[in-house]
Amino acid sequence: MLSPSPAHDYDLVVVGASFAGAACALAAAQYGLRVCVLERKADPGARLHTTGIIVKEAIEQTWLKRIPAALLQRVAQVRLYAPNLRSVRLSAPGYYFMTTDTPNLMRWLAAQVESSGVTLRLAHPFTHARRDGDGWQVEGVGRTRYLVGADGASSRVAQRTGLGRVRDTLYGVEHEFAGLHLAEPGALHCFASRRFAPGYIGWAAQNPTGIQVGLALRHDPRHARQPDLAGFLAHVREAVGLPAEAQPSAIRAGLVPCGLPDGPITAPGLMLTGDAAGIVSPLSAGGIHSSWRHGWGVGDAVGRHLRGNGPAPEAEARRTAPSFRGKRVMRWAMDHFQRDWPVNVLLQSAPMRRLAEQVYFHRRGMRT
Questions:
Q1: What is 1-40+124-166+262-325's CATH topology?
Q2: In the beta sheet, which residues pair with residue 120?
Q3: Domain spanning 51-99+169-257+338-368 has what CATH number?
Q4: How far is Cα 297 from Cα 186, in angstroms, rounded to an integer?
Q5: pLDDT digit string (tens) for 216-268?
Q6: Whole-angstrom Cα distance, residue 236 to residue 215?
């Protein structure tokens, strides 16, 4: 029977305290393992790179059902806008999203990790690690049996250890407007526009503390383009009911994976999860549910293996990583064939509705 070794300072070191990293740590902690989470930020709720929008499945089927109600707002519909701002409202029986007070959600999640017995090191960025016998020597931390990189699309763990790196990304920016309310707060407002969001969409949503409005586009590091959020806001203000004088209370920005890493996501004693492993839908860029499930599975596999009840966690990490094959085909089509005029013309059509249902509701939707 395998068991945690006294030759290691930790059984598991996780880099990154967002959804995938927190899930990994919480799952492993259930087995009484010595777990350490490294988070480069002093405040887990600062400088966020996530919209914090959570799908129904994550709320109902994972540990995230424990999120306090005060941090959530239910959104049951999608209003999809063509570039000319004509729109259609989509919904699905029983389906919903949850927008969140994301900064406080991340702080709450970090507190849950710490209260589970995990050592949480804030303001402690990962710098380097090297293979050391049957484990890893993590600079500034000590020796660990397993090391997991859950540190985002530009994973430093992947860079420093030679694992695959995500090259296909979107770049997104989002403004938050505290205390304001959308004219239609019960809908997730999504805007198709090649002008403002080539390769993706713009969005507006009501959350528990205000309005969040964002924009993402296909990122090419050789010809980097900044999202024109100011122009987008001017374009959609009237449609969503955002006052012209409104000023953002917070800004978040960052890279979002829309492709797989260019190499392996595991090596002996080493695994990637979340954005670092490309565990994000290449079409919708939604990743909280899939990242949480994969991160939890990795942590659980480490725990079962060290307690003598499971296979090597590296194999489990590879086996459970989603491939998103169908959505990758749709991503390719969006990259090569996105145009504004077909959406303007076809928004009300059955084929366009079915496409939207596939993206938002897994074809369970209905137009109203």
A1: FAD/NAD(P)-binding domain (3.50.50)
A2: 37
A3: 3.30.9
A4: 33
A5: 988 887 877 788 999 999 999 999 999 999 999 999 988 888 889 999 999 99
A6: 12
